[in-house]
């Protein structure tokens, strides 16, 4: 049930809660970190979505993997006790919560493990599962001039939180999602075992945990691939009125070899009106030099499209070299002439671009409003019908936040991970990032999300939910399709009592 709608808590609230004495447990396990109970756990009953709320028994701030392991083992001895790792609580549907169980605040471990490695000439960084990507970025760039290759748009997310899903942004077409860019994990399993795993060492746990929705273990350390960080980025937006031209160009860019395309490719849909959030004013990167209204095509279409790309370069590169390389790439594209906007900024500023939007949204009071987001992966073969029905009709008046759409390449994902994907080589990420205070109400937004998903099912679209959320096991079975058996087997191997990540609502601890 949705807390915001009926001001009650999660449906499991009516069920008997586990009965544990946290002080006694922490003494018995010689806890090195600390814990909070009562009102001090409030943060653990909230998330970015603002739709669900359940109260834990305690919020544990572990010092490291040993604390986590001992708490999980202690939880296994208490009937119905569950344990939820909380990264930065940026889930939408209560995925990092537990009703009456133990929430492990992974942020308390964020300084652990930080170490640069040079393995046969390639660089890697070991980081805590509780580290924020923004800190990984700034530390790697300032100390070593190196950076991870694949990102999310927004970086106040933890390493363990995004690796439990996938972690996608405009670099994923080239390097794959973040889960394709880690080579080793340390995981505390649902049995409390502290296990190091990789492609060759405990591969079932390694691949299972990547995109595994926290079901098999808590990621306490990740080894992330690095590459030299560029100094600068040219960030460019170009506008299309025709969907087929937009997708043709986006697919062209993501299918080219390294060195023959931009370094980042995303896109979004916007309303063909002057709405400040979803309309033309939201498109130019540099608001001072907005588009001249005279050149905006009067097509009468409800929505238009924007391709967003970025080009990396070094400070020492001659401006004409950068201009020439960018012009060479842009000349192959069919955007509307004159509808181009660009800015040059440092690589770190570019990657922290959503942080600035966050600061503004916090100042306007909309950051803390509910966010009934919907994220989907949709096969290339169905994206035209999706545009015609969803973008051009259902959400044509805007949603109070960005509407993203960009292509990804399946060959950059590893089938051995737990993520469920559409079948085709090219599929699109579609994200409806709603901010309720600026758009339709929570009820309308949730109903519209449901309507969109039901329409996709009814029309037989080849699609999957990203950051999935379902109410029943039947729906989870459908989501995983022929990977369901493997997912269940992995659960039986690593968390047989279903102690971990109860907020995902996939498996339930019953005794
Ligand atoms: P939480 O919400 O705290 O946890 C998520 C789930 O993972 C929970 O089930 C939790 O129990 C589990 N978990 C947390 N830590 C661990 C761990 N160490 N080990 C095992 N399980 C763990 N996603 C993208 O892919 N690309 C984007 O560009 C992107 N942008 C976003 C922008 C914003 C503003 C927001 C709010 C979200 C965005 N996301 C994006 C989604 C985001 O990746 C997920 O919501 C992610 O789970 C959030 O990370 P978190 O650290 O807050 O995790």
How would you briefly describe this protein structure?
One of its GO terms (biological process) is cytokinin metabolic process. The chain is of the alpha+beta class and 511 residues long.
Report on the architecture of this protein.
There is one protein chain. This protein has 511 residues and is of the alpha+beta class. The protein folds into 3 domains: 3-106 and 499-504, 2-Layer Sandwich (Uridine Diphospho-n-acetylenolpyruvylglucosamine Reductase, domain 2), CATH 3.30.43.10; 115-228, Uridine Diphospho-n-acetylenolpyruvylglucosamine Reductase, domain 3 (2-Layer Sandwich); 232-465, Vanillyl-alcohol Oxidase, Chain A, domain 3 (3-Layer(aba) Sandwich). Helix content is 27%, strand content 22%. The protein has 15 helices and 18 strands. The strands form 3 sheets. Strands 14-11-13-12-16-17-15-18 form an 8-stranded antiparallel β-sheet. Strands 5, 6, 7, 8, 9 and 10 form a 6-stranded antiparallel β-sheet that branches. A 4-stranded mixed β-sheet has the order 1-2-4-3, with helices on one face. It starts with a helix and ends in a 17-residue tail after the last helix. The model is unreliable at 1-12 (pLDDT under 50). Flavin-adenine dinucleotide (FAD) binds at residues 47-48, 84-91, 95-96, 106, 129, 152-154, 157-158, 160-162, 164-169, 213-214, 218-219, 467, 501, 503-504.
Topology readout:
Blueprint: H1 3-6, H2 22-28, E1 34-36, E2 58-61, H3 65-76, E3 83-86, E4 102-105, E5 115-119, E6 122-128, H4 133-144, E7 146-148, H5 159-163, H6 172-175, E8 182-189, E9 194-198, H7 203-209, E10 217-228, E11 232-240, H8 243-255, E12 264-271, E13 303-313, H9 319-330, E14 340-346, H10 347-351, H11 353-363, E15 374-379, H12 383-394, E16 403-409, E17 426-432, H13 442-458, E18 463-465, H14 473-480, H15 484-494
Parallel strand pairs: 2-4, 3-4
Antiparallel strand pairs: 1-2, 5-6, 6-10, 7-10, 8-9, 8-10, 11-13, 11-14, 12-13, 12-16, 15-17, 15-18, 16-17
Bound molecules: flavin-adenine dinucleotide.
Flavin-adenine dinucleotide binds at residues 47-48, 84-91, 95-96, 106, 129, 152-154, 157-158, 160-162, 164-169, 213-214, 218-219, 467, 501, 503-504.
């Amino acid at each position: 049930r949705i807390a915001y709608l009926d001001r009650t808590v999660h449906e499991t609230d009516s069920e008997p809660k586990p009965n544990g004495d946290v002080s006694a447990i922490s003494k018995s396990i010689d806890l090195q970190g600390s814990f909070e109970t009562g009102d001090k756990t409030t943060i653990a009953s909230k998330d970015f979505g603002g739709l669900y709320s359940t109260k834990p028994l305690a919020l544990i701030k572990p010092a490291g993997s040993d604390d986590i392991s001992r708490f999980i083992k202690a939880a296994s001895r208490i009937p119905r006790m569950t344990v939820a790792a909380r990264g930065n609580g940026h889930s939408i549907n209560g995925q990092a919560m537990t009703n009456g169980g133990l929430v492990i605040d992974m942020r308390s471990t964020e300084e652990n493990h930080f170490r640069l490695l040079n393995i046969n000439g390639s660089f890697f960084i070991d980081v805590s599962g509780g580290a924020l990507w923004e800190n990984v970025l700034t530390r790697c760039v300032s100390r070593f001039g190196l950076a991870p290759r694949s990102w999310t748009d927004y970086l106040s997310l933890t390493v363990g939180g995004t690796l439990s899903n996938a972690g996608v942004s405009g670099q994923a077409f080239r390097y794959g999602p973040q889960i394709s860019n880690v080579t080793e994990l340390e995981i505390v399993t649902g049995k409390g075992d502290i296990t190091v795993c990789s492609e060759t060492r405990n591969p079932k746990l390694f691949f299972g945990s990547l995109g595994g929705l926290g079901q098999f273990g808590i990621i306490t350390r990740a080894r992330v691939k690095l590459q030299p960080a560029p100094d600068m980025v040219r960030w460019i937006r170009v506008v299309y009125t025709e969907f087929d031209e937009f997708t043709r160009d986006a697919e062209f860019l993501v299918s080219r070899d390294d060195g023959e395309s931009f370094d980042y490719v995303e896109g979004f849909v916007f309303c063909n009106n002057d709405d400040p959030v979803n309309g033309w004013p939201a498109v130019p990167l540099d608001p001072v030099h907005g588009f001249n209204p005279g050149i905006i095509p009067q097509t009468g279409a409800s929505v238009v499209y924007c391709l967003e790309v970025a080009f990396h370069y070094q400070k020492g590169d001659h401006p004409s070299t950068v201009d020439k390389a960018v012009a060479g790439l842009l000349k192959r594209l069919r955007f509307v002439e004159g509808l181009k906007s660009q800015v040059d900024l440092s690589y770190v500023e570019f990657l922290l671009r959503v942080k600035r939007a966050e600061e503004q949204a916090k100042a306007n009071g909309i950051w803390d409003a509910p966010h009934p987001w919907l994220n989907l992966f949709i096969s290339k073969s169905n994206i035209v019908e999706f545009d015609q029905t969803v973008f051009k009709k259902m959400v044509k008046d805007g949603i109070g936040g960005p509407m993203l759409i960009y292509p990804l390449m399946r060959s950059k994902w590893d089938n051995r991970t737990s993520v469920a994907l559409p079948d085709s080589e090219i599929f699109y990420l579609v994200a409806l990032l709603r901010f309720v205070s600026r758009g339709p109400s929570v009820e309308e937004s949730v109903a519209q999300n449901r309507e969109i998903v039901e329409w996709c099912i009814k029309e037989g679209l080849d699609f999957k939910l990203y950051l999935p959320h379902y109410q029943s096991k039947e729906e989870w079975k459908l989501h995983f399709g022929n990977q369901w058996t493997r997912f269940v087997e992995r659960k039986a191997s690593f968390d047989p009592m279903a102690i971990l990540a109860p907020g995902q609502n996939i498996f339930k601890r019953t005794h």
